[in-house]
Amino acid sequence: MSKLQELERHLAQLPSAHPGRRAAVVSAMQALQAERGYLDDAAVAEVARLTGLSTTEVEELATFYSLIYRRPVGRHVLLICDSLCCAMNGGEQLLTTAEQMSGAPLGEISPDGAVSILPSICLGLCDRAPAALVDGEALGPLDESALAALLRRLRGED
Ligand code: FES
After folding, report:
1. What is the tens place of the pLDDT at every residue in 111-156?
2. What is the DSSP letter of 131?
């Protein structure tokens, strides 16, 4: 049984106005994203149906969480922090370099489909600035050579 099916079964047992339905919104978004790769409009509507939230409320939350993707992404997602601490430690240049190395604008999928690079608000890794997160793995401090090695790994070249 998939996580989405488990969640659906759990929510079906709760009354429609139960606060647990609304609280399950992030889990529902994550479960649908795990199945589909990203949260398209149909998935937003599905989350709204499951949780009792409006599609606008789900849309707002999906936009707020940087780990929820509203458009297709590459096989790997590299989030590079662009908040103050990282920006002051080379994060802005790192983003520019990452964009050039990936061959695609930020937010787009690299031509080989391997990676999407997304700027992110603070990742909570300020002590590792400039910091990044790839597929849930915390990285930092990242420099240009570490970034190049990372992209080779994500492309399966190492
Ligand atoms: S400012 Fe970059 S991780 Fe916090």
Report:
1. 999 999 999 999 999 999 999 999 889 999 999 999 999 999 999 9
2. -
